[in-house]
Amino acid sequence: MTWRWRGPARGLWARIWDGLRPLDPYRSVKAALGALVIVSVIITTLLVFVAMHSATELRVITIFSIIASLLITQFVANSLTAPLGEMTDVTQSMAHGDYTRRVHSARRDEFGDLADAFNRMAADLEAVDTHRKELVANVSHELRTPIAALRAVLENVVDGVSQPDPETMRTALKQTERLGRLVEHLLDLSRLDNGVVPLHTSRFEVWPYLSGVLKEANMSRGAATLAGSGTHTRTDVHLHLDVSPPELTAHADAERLHQVVANLIDNAIKHSPRHGRVTVHARRGEGPGSLELDVQDEGPGIPESERYRVFERFNRGGPGTSGPGSDGGTGLGLAIARWAVDLHGGRIGVAESPRGCRIRVTLPGLEPARS
To answer: CB of 220 within 8 A of CB of 173?
Structure first.
């Protein structure tokens, strides 16, 4: 019986204590200042009372009263403003690029709350700065590879080491197109980050829409084989579409969804084994106009420990995970797919699959989308 009442009684006492926070000098600056005034008045009154009942002169008592009040005020002021001085030092360090410093404050009042908020802001800025440095390093690395290859081809042609025959020009064109794809992906991510990509949602039939996306994927693979310079040259992978029910309709931005599906198909083809199969499953979601889309391949799959990272920028999986003939890509396709799904207010992630990798996209349909 005792344990039964201990929980509610403890909760009631916690609510009463929170209600008394404005009166707690340890949890409120206003209360601390009020306590300072009260203590100063009490000390002055006591000294005056001593002066009235002794031979001590009133001016001496006044001097002692002023000194005591100043000492107490100085002590309380230093205690209250210590976090502000530390915040000033940390802010100056952040202005010089050091985002690792934090404000150390165990206070429970408003200054303690300010210190906690300041530390959270510093942590966010440190994360942004780290992401910026990683982005610059990754972009520099990705740009350097095709530029170096293209420069080598052109130098060989200029020095007469190789002739400008169609095969050499196809090699140069392949590197140029890879460079162009990287720049295009970076521009897409920049627009998505800045929120300048509006959504134009409408209702459409899923079967003919996805059939067109798969047809374009087949055509791009054929063009890559003929020109030797496309996104990939995997013509041995078969694409299959499964829409249930066949008359399924969805409500989304067709252009942005095309970007999602095309990137997922391209990624699945790159990681498929020889003569593998990539299947696109589409079915109705929970709400009106919603859509649940799966892209399934027969590749090695993604380890569970790496699933949370596959949608990060420039993440191209671990070594040995790409299929035959894959160049690894730019590592931006899945990041763009994630941002496009986020614009719809949907979800994207790696779903459980007995074989290969299954990427699942869920779009809310007629629910309000985020812009």
So the answer is: no
- pLDDT tens digits, residue range 54-79? 766 667 777 777 787 777 777 777 76
On the CB side of 318, how many CA atoms lie within 13 Å of its CA?
8
Instruction: For residue 283, give the 3-state DSSP assignment.
Output: strand
φ, ψ for residue 111, nearest 5 deg: -65, -35
**Residue 190: CB atoms within 10 Å:** 11
DSSP label at 237?
A: P
8 A C-beta contact, residue 299 and residue 273: yes
Q: Which helix (H) or strand (E) holds 339?
A: helix 333-343
DSSP 176-231: HHHHHHHHHHHHHHHHHHTT-----EEEEEHHHHHHHHHHHHHHHHHHHHHHS-SS
Phi, psi of 78 (to 5 degrees): -60, -40
Sheet of strand 358-363, all strands in order from the earlier edge strand to the far edge: 238-244, 277-284, 291-296, 358-363, 347-351
Identify residue 87 by its one-letter amino acid code. M
Per-residue tokens: 285:
């979601």
Please spell the DSSP secondary structure of 26-54, one letter per residue.
Answer: TT-HHHHHHHHHHHHHHHHHHHHHHHHTS
Taking only the tens place, the pLDDT of each residue in 211-225 is 988 888 776 655 444
326 DSSP 8-state letter: -
The reply to whether omega before 164 is within 30° of 0 (cis) is no
**Whole-model pTM above 0.70?**
no
Residue 84's identity, in one-letter code, is L
- The Cα–Cα gap between 9 and 208 comes to 64
Contact 138, 185 (CB under 8 A): no
DSSP letters spanning 38-104: HHHHHHHHHHHHHHHTSS--HHHHHHHHHHHHHHHHHHHHHHHHHHHHHHHHHHHHHHTT-------
The answer for residues whose C-beta is within 8 angstroms of residue 39's C-beta and 6 or more apart is 72
- Of 355, 362, 241, 366, the closest CA to residue 301 belongs to 355
